[in-house]
Each structure stands twice: as structure tokens, then as C-alpha cells.
Amino acid sequence: MKNRVYLFLLITFVSLLVSAQKNETIPGIGLPLISQVNQGNSYITFPGDIGNIEPLWFEGNVIPNFYLRQSQNSRLMGVLTPQIIIRMYQEESFPVRTPSYMPQLTVYYRLTELDKTPGLNLFGRVAHHSNGQDGDFFLEDGSINTKSGNFATNFLELGFIATNLNTRFNAYQFFKTSFEVHPEGFIQEELMGIYSRYRWHNSFSIFKLNSGSPSSNGGRPAISLKGETTWMFGDYNQLDAFSAERLNLSLTFYYHPKFLEDIGLFVQYYHGSDYYNMYFDHRLDVLRFGFMTEKLRF
Question: Which of 168, 180, 177 minimizes the C-alpha distance to 120?
Fold first, then answer.
């Protein structure tokens, strides 16, 4: 357990170091691209995840982005994202139980010059997470009703995104750090004390381009690597302040073959609390494979 805490601190420290390094001044990375990296990619997993997750035919994550500003020379941009996560279980009738509905509105503001890299950006998010069910939260035996129990919370997130370019390796770098809060009164009462309301997120992404000038338009990343950590604060399952069970971490590797258009292959390792609504009290250690969209153009 302690090793995972040390790994979390190491990833955060290395990410801060890498994101702080300076490179030559080149054309900046626009807010639409920054938002795409921050919002994440749509994906679908293959059957046969390796780990302690329930047997699934697939998990699908749909993240369409609707931009509320199109001007390229503005420091401010809004993005509306009606995210949905679904899981189809390997059970009779192949049920898709309690999808996660996660609509969110995110606003980005450029703090540094628009046409320069490295760059620094501020973002704020208002989001909702529910499962569309109306059943009792607890079963008669006191366990959580994962099949039809009502799950709902609302949260705010505020953070910074630093962008950089490694000219030596022709790779773009993104570092994000943010803090998420689920205010009292905006979270379901049954979740109080058993669901973390305060979360510190960090992520570091690297996108390696195929060829050509790193500042040219139309570049498509051939591979990418993304590491993410979350530390959960507050009154949470009576855990000690430095318990390793407060840590979530993931590492995702993406490869885009030349013969595919907008999708590629990914492999991901995830350790931590389940992010699928009523399954939040499950602890996962899972290795998964699947297809992922990658429409980024540098």
C-alpha cells in the first residue's frame, strides 16, 4: 500500500518538473486542442479485462464536445460535454445497468500569450453525475443497491493546464492539476461519509507526432501516454489521512496505426475506487484493452 502512495507522489513530482521545463518559443497550442486533451477520449473496451472487475462484454465512454466559442484569437472558451459511461455485463440478457450520466460545462481561460508555447491555462467546471435510477440506496441487508439504487451528486472543479513542446522528440506535453469539490447540499445524503467529496487530480500526457514540423497544422499523434492520479480527501469511509485507499491512479498507452482513420488501440491499467456511479465502493485493479478515438490535430 505504501508503495502506491510513493508512486503517486513520484508521478506528481516528475510531472511538475517536466511541465516546468522551457523550450524555444513556437506557435501556441489553442484552447480547442487543450479542451480535447482535458475532456478525454471516447472509447470501447474489449471483453476479458484482466483484474477484479465484474465480467463485462464492454465498457463504453462517449464524450462529445460542443464548443460555445469558435474565435481562434479569444482567451476565453466554453465547452458543453454530455458524457455517458455504460457497461454491458456478461450475464443473462446482457444487461446494461445504471449508466453514468455526466453532463458538464467547462470554461477555459488562457493566462499566457495566445501564440506562444509554453503556455498556462485556467479552467473551471460544473458537472453532474447520476445513474437515472429511483430505487432505494441500500438493500434490506444494509449493502449498496448497485442494480437500481439512486445515485446523484454535483461537483465543481478548478485547476490549471500547462502546455509545452519537446522539440527533440517532436512531442507535445500537457500537465493538469485541479481540485474537485462536491458541496454539501449538492450531493445525495446517503453518500455523505462513504463517498469522497474533495479530490486532488493530476495528469501528465505526452503526444508523439508521426513526422513533420511540430508546429505545423494537421499533425496526428502516432502514440500517446497519459498518467493520472487522484487523492481523495475528507471524511471518507473512516480512512486514515494517508491511507493508500485514498489513491486512484491510471496509466494509458495509445497507438494509432496508419491504416485507421479516427480510432486507435489502447491499453490501460487502473487502480482505485470504481468510477461507475453506485459501484463507487468497489476497489479495482484492472488491465484493459480496446479502441479509442483520437481526433487531435497539432
Answer: 177
Q: Name the amino acid, one letter, at 228.
A: E
Nearest Cα neighbor of 44 from 271, 268, 217 is 268
H or E element, residue 161: strand 152-166
**What is the pLDDT, as a whole number, of residue 183?**
95
CA-to-CA separations, 162 to 2, 11, 20, 34, 208, in angstroms, rounded: 29, 16, 8, 9, 17
- Cα–Cα–Cα angle for 288, 61, 249, rounded to 5 degrees: 50
User: In this structure, what C-alpha cell is assigned to residue 256?
Assistant: 494509432
What is the radius of gyration, based on Cα positions, of the chain?
Answer: 20
- Nearest 10 degrees: Cα torsion 68, 71, 74, 77: 20
Predicted confidence (pLDDT) per residue in 149-165, tens digit? 999 999 999 999 999 98
Nearest 5 degrees, angle CA 251-CA 252-CA 258?
Answer: 160
Residue found under cell 460535454: 81
Transcribe 86-118 into DSSP letters. EEEESSTT--B-SPEEEEEEEEEEE-S-TT-BS
Q: How far apart are CA 106 and CA 223, in angstroms?
A: 27
Task: State if pTM tops 0.90.
Answer: no
**Virtual CA dihedral for 14, 19, 21, 22, nearest 10 degrees?**
170
Helix extents (H) in 130-240: none
